[in-house]
Design goal:
Blueprint (H helix, E strand, L loop, with lengths): L1 E6 L11 H13 L3 E6 L6 H10 L4 E5 L5 H14 L4 E5 L1 H5 L1 H5 L6 E3 L4 H9 L10 E5 L2 E4 L22 H7 L12 E4 L2 E2 L11 H6 L4 E2 L2 H15 L3 E4 L8 H14 L4 E6 L6 H9 L2 E9 L3 H7 L6 H13 L3 E8 L6 H13 L4 E6 L7 H5 L26 H16 L5 H9 L1 H11 L3
Parallel strand pairs: 1-2, 1-3, 3-4, 4-5, 8-11, 11-12, 12-13, 13-14, 14-15
Antiparallel strand pairs: 5-6, 6-7, 9-10
Helix pairs in contact: 1-6, 2-3, 9-10, 10-11, 14-16, 17-18
The structure holds cobalamin and iron/sulfur cluster.
Cobalamin binds next to helix 1, strand 3, strand 4, helix 4 and helix 6.
């Protein structure tokens, strides 16, 4: 049996490999005899690429991954695949079809949708030779009707998963374009990993999507398993840096300390970064993490308005915690990147300006300003449903406002976002590092990719 997994990323080149399908591919290789390939358009967006792949290959099963802003591109891939080979089974998975399966089935080329985690579900589809009748986690079309199999429980022990199938991805390009630790050193060679799945928080712009994909409980890989992955990555690709992409990496302090102790004992000598939550940061924890190689933290700050943080985002952090986190990190000489969102429902222009000013004055090295985008099925989406466009192409929080805000036109919001970036990166205390970044060769290439998001 021949399987292909497609990651139809056309919009923004990124140094972050698509770990979801790389995990599925590795799992299929480990536990079945099928032939599996990954087709990733991240570095080859030419219109003929996908057509030529399907012209020259016959696949029994085509799996396509989709986040909301990628859905239209994903559906085009499905159309090409079905046209070239009407007998192939087309399964779509990932965040978008998981939260909007019925909507996804409106496309005639989609035969099945995988709800949630994909490894065990896809394996069973392969083992059943494409027969979907009793495969948990699958919804499928039969005689024009949608049949909904029951949900599959998430994999209990994440250590059972083989490491992602990096060899099926264009890893040379990913390593070259990886930018997460640029503010530490633009010459670092690194990649991203995922050490846990799930998040217990309930931010309105994110949940219940994450719970729908990964279940309600947070699952963590063992520190030994993580160490093995890092060792393997260093052997295979000579990395000297990495990032934990986990949403809430420091949620379990004991686990994080275990990982750090393991990294130190193994003498791994890798520089790394991770996402933190301002309400969970302590000096003692960050000190331990730094001794294991931590060089940068990423903090979801979102807004300088406590009203927006509490009433609109349900973020469960305070601005005091944010300030304290930055002070602790800077005293440890760590780089800090802040994430901010502009244009929440009910947010005033004054509040947006306050957020930009707060970011500018905070002692952080990098800032990302995105546009508040209530993704389908999130609590924020449900609450402000009538204000939101239904064109999924528009759901891109780097670029388009999807909310119709009375006193704030999309043009004005985009202007404010650009202004935020300029004020932040051209402020006297950052201008030198901004120019330094732009004038190193590797920094320049990666900065160009980032600029596409402005
Ligand atoms: C790292 C990350 C990124 C990275 C890299 C993403 C990548 N995959 O290349 C970067 C920073 C580039 C990124 C970008 C964006 N991201 Co992002 N990202 C994440 C994050 C934190 C981790 C992704 C990950 O690796 N997860 C671990 C793997 C194992 O899970 P997975 O990818 O979901 O795959 C599993 C299942 O979904 C399923 N599955 C996935 N694909 C398929 C395919 C088939 C056929 C099957 C059967 C199953 C299946 O099986 C997989 C294994 O179990 C998630 C949140 C999270 N914790 O998952 C958000 C998340 C995926 N991102 C999200 C979004 C919206 C974006 C953006 C679209 C934002 C934007 N610009 O508007 C952009 C995409 C732009 C682009 N075209 O590249 C949303 C998606 C929500 C939605 N409704 O679509 C998430 C869920 C965050 C959130 N809580 O809202 N992201
Ligand atoms: S935004 Fe982050 S902290 Fe909030 S629910 Fe989503 S993953 Fe968890």
């Amino acid at each position: 049996m021949k399987v292909v997994l497609v990651f139809p990323r056309y919009k923004y080149p990124s140094g972050d490999p698509p770990l979801g399908i790389a995990y599925i591919a590795a799992y299929l290789r480990e536990y079945s005899n099928c032939e599996v390939e990954i087709v990733d358009t991240t570095f080859n967006t030419s219109p003929g690429y996908i057509s030529s792949i399907f012209k020259h290959n016959d696949y029994d099963i085509v799996g396509i991954s989709a986040m909301t802003p990628m859905i239209n591109d994903a559906l085009k891939v499905a159309e090409i695949a079905k046209t070239k080979n009407p007998d192939s089974l087309i399964i779509m998975g990932g965040p978008h079809p998981t939260v909007l399966p019925e909507e996804t089935f409106k496309d005639k080329n989609i035969d099945a949708v995988c709800i949630g985690e994909g490894e065990a579900t896809f394996l069973e589809v392969v083992q059943n030779n494409g027969n979907l009748e009793d495969v948990k986690g699958i919804w499928f079309k039969k005689n024009g009707r949608i049949l909904k199999n029951s949900r599959r429980n998430p994999i209990g022990n994440l250590d059972e998963l083989p490491f992602p199938a990096w060899d099926l991805l264009p890893m040379d390009k990913y390593l070259k374009n990886w930018y997460q630790l640029d503010s530490v050193d633009t010459n670092l060679v690194g990649t991203s990993i995922i050490a846990s799945r799930g998040c217990p928080y309930v931010c309105t712009y994110c949940q219940p999507t994450l719970r729908t994909i990964f279940g309600t409980k947070i699952r963590k890989r063992s520190s030994d398993n993580i160490l093995q992955e890092l060792t393997r990555l260093r052997e295979k690709y000579n990395i000297n840096a990495f990032m934990f992409q986990d949403d809430t990496f420091i949620i379990d302090e004991k686990w994080v300390r275990d990982i750090c102790a393991n990294i130190i004992n193994a003498g791994l000598d890798l520089k790394w970064g991770c996402n933190v939550r301002a309400n969970l940061v302590t000096k003692s924890l960050l000190t331990k993490m730094k001794s294991a190689g931590l060089r940068k933290i990423f903090v979801g700050i979102e807004s300088a308005s406590q009203r927006i943080l509490d009433d609109i985002y349900n973020k469960k952090i305070t601005l005091e915690q944010v300030k304290k986190t930055v002070i602790i990190a800077k005293n440890l000489n760590l780089k800090v990147q802040g994430y901010f969102m502009l244009g929440a429902p009910t947010e005033s222009v004054a509040e947006i300006k306050k957020t930009i000013k707060f970011a500018k004055n905070l002692d952080i090295d990098e800032a990302t300003f995105s546009i508040t985008t209530p993704l389908p099925n999130t609590d924020l989406y449900k609450k402000f449903n009538e204000l939101i466009t239904k064109d999924f192409d528009e759901f891109d929080y780097y670029r388009n406002p999807v909310l119709n805000l009375n006193d704030l036109s999309p043009k004005k919001l985009s202007f404010l976002k650009k202004k935020g970036y300029l004020e932040f990166y051209l402020s006297p205390k950052r201008i030198t590092s901004t120019l330094k970044m732009l004038f190193t060769l590797s920094g320049f290439q990666k900065s160009m990719n980032k600029l596409k998001r402005l």
